[in-house]
Each structure stands twice: as structure tokens, then as C-alpha cells.
Design brief:
The protein has about 475 residues and is an alpha/beta fold. The protein has 16 helices and 16 strands. The protein has a five-stranded parallel sheet, sandwiched between helices. Strands 6-7-8-9 form a four-stranded antiparallel sheet. A three-stranded mixed sheet has the order 13-12-14, with helices on one face. Strand 15 and strand 16 form a beta hairpin. It is elongated and about 100 Å long. It binds adenosine monophosphate (AMP) and zinc ion. The site of adenosine monophosphate has 19 residues, from helix 1 and strand 10.
């Protein structure tokens, strides 16, 4: 599979360290609020990546953290802790907030067919690991104590901006979001590994450490949780594009300084879901959730299809009109699949040819929109229904759009509707009209048709015989 690697800025052949296992790490949600459908775009595309890797023959071990401490209002080290902010907003404890929104996150994931990672680790579970990494960085001279906090010293690095050659002025940590610069920092990009001198005396969660009672910075948690479960060599690290700087940049700085060697080979970044007003964001307060879509009558599968129809490295603009188009496309797909008949032999040659298009789409930097087109190609193909149904089931291992079960439900609903409308007397009259037509007794056939019409019944002649419906 070729994937775009943010680290090298080009598409590269994906080759894991160990041929049979892919070690994949995903930045999990900060659980101070519901995930919005932008966050979930990132998780949908990461889910497709994991499933595509499994589909093409790899075993994937995937780990995700749950950020329940340490993520401050700015992605750098300033502002209030987001968890504390959530707890204040809802007059609950931080742990209650974390539990509630973690459950809500996984419930949304389930609705969107996003597989739960093999390991899900809350950040508050790994304090010993953070302390160990921070102490090692101090011992190696890669970190320093200042004003009670422990900072990573970015001047010890050969290269700090690994993803982009950023304009340093634009990215100067501490001057973003109108917050004051931290005077303890030796270099403006230095970041906090461990806080003890929080500006917020009432920080809810604090732990003892060699540097005083405090709490970890946000970036350290992903390095430690990844290493705890996936070891020192990571194959692929995922996240939304906003995580590239400073979060992933800092993860790399501290992980490689700690390990003394390269840490992760591939970086997979999903671009944003935007609205007319720019990036959808939790901190803006107004955002769309899966529950809200459901309340408005949208099937979460239509949102999943909406995401799959565009490439993960392009910004995606959300509008109700765009979502309605995805709904129409989903309903049409399902209706078409519902007409396919079970049974018969699979035509292997056709199967292989059509599958190849799908596999090529995935292998070409996870081109999900072309993969969806490959699905349309199946429906248009000249092969038999058995082959089509087998291909749809096969593709849906990756697309996870519930295609076959939705088609089955549609057929069931139709059958139920027909059963509810069943009327043996009218069936008998329709049959009598068919007989009369066969016997060329057209006067009688017309009489029956008129009688039914007077009773509000319309006869529809189809290649499968005469049917009727109430008008
Ligand atoms: P958070 O819960 O804020 O830590 O974010 C969870 C994930 O969603 C991270 O991988 C973010 O990079 C990603 N993310 C945040 N905003 C958006 C957006 N508007 N579109 C897509 N992904 C996003
Ligand atoms: Zn992370």
C-alpha cells in the first residue's frame, strides 16, 4: 500500500517493521465534551486505514489513548485544563466528565461502524510511565526544571519542525490565543513535560512526582502509552492534521530523545471537516454531533459515506445540502443492492477483476472515493447477482456501510408493507382479470379494472404479472 507520509512529504510504499504485524497508534479524544462530526471524520478515516491494512493481509495492533488530563485550552502549554473546564461547565467531577464523554465517544463510534482499537488507555492510568520518561529525559540533559515545572529543551534537537518548515513567528508557542508567554522557557518551542506550578491551584487531578505534586503535559501521554503497548518501534501514527504541530512534533522530540533512535516511520494525518465558518471545533462550543444528525433523521451510515466520498488529505466542507446528497447516494445504493437475488455460483474471473479495482484504490494512498466508485462498477457490471453480492460483502469489510444488512432491511420492510396491504378479495379480482385477458374476454377484464378503480385500487401490469396498489 502506498500512503502519504507527512514526515517525508511524499507517498511511500508502506512497509512495517515486522512483516506480519502493523503497530498503529491513534491520538484519542479529549473527553471534556462530545466528539463532533469533524473529530469523527478523523476516526472514520483511521478506521478505514486499519481495515484496509487488515484487508490487504496485515495483522494490526492498534492503540488509542483517552485524554483525561493535561490537554490545556491551547494546544501548547497555556490556558485552563480542558477537563477541568468541562467539569466546571457541568458541575461534575473531572472523572465523572471523563467517564461520561468516553462512553459517548464509543457509542458514536459504534453508530459509525468505527472499530474499537485493541487497546484503549486513559492517560490517568500511566503516571508511572510519564515519570519514568521525564526522569530519563532529565538524566540525558534533554529536559530541565524551571519554576517548578519540567520542560523539554528543544535546543538539544537537530531539527524540531519535522513536518513542515514553519514560519517560527506564526507558531511561537505562548503568543497564541492571546495568552502570556511562559517566562520559564529557555526556548520558545520548549514544552512542559510535567506541571507542578499550575496557574490553577484547584487542578483536580494531581500526582506525586520527584519534582513535586503535579500532572503530566498532554504530549507525553501519547509517547508513553504508545511505547507501553507497542514498544520502541512504531509503524504508523495517526491523528487529525491539527495534531501535527505542536502535538506530534513534540511527541517525536521527546520520544526520539528518550529512545536515542527513530521512533515512528509513517505519519498519517487526516485533514479537517470545515463549515462555512472554518474548522469545526469543540472549543467553539457550537458543533454537530452524531446524536444531532440522528435527531434530524440522518442515518449515521450516510455520514460515513459522505466522508468516504472524499480523500482524507483534502479538507471536507460540511453543509446540509452535501449531507443530503450523501443520503440520496446511500439510499440509491441500498435500493439497487436490494434488487440482487441470492443464490448461484460466483463468477471468479469477474470477481477478481472488480476486486482489483477496489484494492488498487485502497493501495493508492487510501483513495476511498475511488473505492466507492469501484462499488458502483460492481452494480453496473455484467456478472451475475451472486458475484455482485459476494463483492459487496467483501468491500464492506473496509467500507463498513452495512450495505447488505440495509438492503435486507429494505426488502423486509417492503414485504411487511405488502403483507399489511394484503387483501385476498382484491387478489382474486386481479387474478380473474388476468384470466379474462388470457381468454381474450377484454370486456370482462375492463369491467374488473373499472370496478377496482371505483374502489380506489389501481392495477399495475409488470413483467412479473399484474400487481395492485391503493391510490
Ligand atoms: P480532540 O478530542 O480535540 O483531542 O480531537 C480528537 C481528534 O479529532 C484529533 O485527532 C484531532 O486532530 C481531530 N480533529 C479536531 N478537529 C477536527 C476537524 N474539524 N476535522 C477533522 N478532525 C478534527
Ligand atoms: Zn496524541
Amino acid at each position: 500500500m502506498y500512503l502519504y507520509n507527512s514526515l517525508s512529504h511524499k507517498k511511500e510504499l508502506f512497509v512495517p517493521n515486522h512483516p506480519d504485524e502493523v503497530k498503529m497508534y491513534t491520538c484519542g479524544p479529549t473527553v471534556y465534551h462530545y466528539a463532533h462530526i469533524g473529530n469523527l471524520r478523523t476516526y472514520i478515516m483511521e478506521d478505514v486505514l486499519e481495515k484496509a491494512l487488515c484487508y490487504t493481509g496485515y495483522n494490526v495492533k492498534r492503540v488509542m489513548n483517552i485524554t483525561d488530563v493535561g490537554h490545556l485550552a491551547s494546544d501548547a502549554d497555556t490556558g485552563e485544563d480542558k477537563m477541568l473546564k468541562g467539569a466546571r461547565r457541568e458541575h461534575k467531577t473531572v472523572m465523572e466528565i471523563a467517564k461520561y464523554y468516553t462512553d459517548a465517544f464509543f457509542s458514536d463510534c459504534e453508530k459509525l461502524n468505527i472499530k474499537r482499537p485493541d487497546v484503549v488507555e486513559p492517560a490517568t492510568n500511566c503516571i508511572d510511565e510519564y515519570i519514568h520518561m521525564v526522569q530519563t529525559l532529565l538524566d540525558k540533559g534533554k529536559a530541565y526544571l524551571a519554576g517548578g515545572n519540567v520542560y523539554f529543551d528543544t535546543s538539544t534537537l537537530d531539527k524540531y519542525y519535522v513536518f513542515n518548515d514553519h514560519d517560527e513567528e506564526d507558531l511561537a508557542v505562548g503568543v497564541r490565543e492571546g495568552v502570556e508567554e511562559d517566562a520559564n522557557k529557555r526556548n520558545k518551542n520548549d514544552f512542559v513535560l510535567w506541571f507542578t506550578k499550575s496557574k490553577f491551584e484547584d487542578q483536580a487531578l494531581k500526582w506525586d512526582s520527584p519534582w513535586g505534586v503535579g500532572y503530566p503535559g498532554w504530549h507525553i501521554e501519547c509517547s508513553c502509552i504508545s511505547m507501553k503497548h507497542l514498544g520502541e518501534d512504531l509503524d504508523i501514527h495517526c491523528g487529525g492534521i491539527d495534531n501535527a504541530f505542536p502535538h506530534h512534533t513534540n511527541e517525536i522530540a521527546q520520544s526520539e530523545s528518550y529512545l536515542g533512535h527513530k521512533w515512528c516511520n509513517y505519519w498519517f494525518h487526516v485533514h479537517h471537516l470545515n463549515t462555512d465558518n472554518g474548522k469545526m471545533s469543540k472549543s467553539k462550543g457550537e458543533f454537530l454531533t452524531v446524536s444531532l444528525l440522528e435527531q434530524k433523521g440522518y442515518d449515521p451510515m450516510a455520514y460515513r459515506l459522505f466522508c468516504l466520498q472524499s480523500h482524507y488529505r483534502r479538507n471536507l466542507v460540511f453543509s446540509w445540502e452535501n449531507l443530503d446528497n450523501a443520503v440520496a447516494a446511500y439510499d440509491k445504493l441500498v435500493a439497487k443492492i436490494a434488487t440482487l437475488k441470492q443464490g448461484g455460483e460466483i463468477e471468479q474471473e469477474a470477481f477478481d477483476k472488480l476486486k482489483e479495482r477496489f484494492v488498487n484504490a485502497l493501495n493508492g494512498d487510501l483513495n476511498t472515493s475511488v473505492a466507492v466508485t469501484a462499488l458502483y462498477d460492481v452494480l453496473k457490471a455484467k456478472c451475475n447477482d451472486a458475484t455482485k453480492l459476494a463483492l459487496i460483502a467483501d468491500f464492506d469489510q473496509v467500507l463498513s456501510l452495512n450495505l447488505l444488512s440495509a438492503a435486507e432491511k429494505l426488502n423486509q420492510a417492503k414485504a411487511e408493507e405488502e403483507a399489511a396491504n394484503a387483501d385476498p378479495e382484491i387478489d382474486a379480482l386481479v387474478a380473474a382479470r388476468t384470466e379474462a385477458k388470457k381468454a381474450k374476454n377484454f370486456a370482462e377484464a375492463d369491467r374488473i379494472r373499472d370496478e377496482l378503480k371505483a374502489r380506489g385500487i389501481e392495477i399495475i401490469d409488470t413483467p412479473q404479472g399484474a400487481k395492485w396498489r391503493k391510490v
